[in-house]
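Project standup — Tuesday

K.O.: blocked on the structure for the chain from last sprint. Re-posting the sequence here as requested.
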Amino acid sequence: HTELNRVSVMLLSIQVFQSTLRKYKDTLLGSEELQEYYDPESGEHIIDTDPQIFYTILHFYQTKGHLYCPPSITEERFLEEIKFFRLTKYFLKLNDTPEETLENEENERPK
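H.V.: unblocked you, prediction finished:
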């Protein structure tokens, strides 16, 4: 029996297998840190982000590492989100962007 995580993004409820997320334990969704976003009332992890960006983030986990910036999202906005989700190093590997630019910046979001 594989457990499902329920993630709510802008009132959109998404179910994803824990085993899918845990393949990348160094990321927000794959780590125990995800529990900080758990809401016992709803039984979901609540994350305030753009659903289109979240689907791209989820796609990363489901495709074993394919991460891209959707054409309708600015690269600046996308980079903010992947820093929050701790996916920067995976995006950089695919796009040959200097790692120092993004890894030295912290992006915290209120929980």
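K.O.: great, moving the ticket to review. The longest helix spans residues 51-62. Residues 97-107 have pLDDT under 50 and may be disordered.
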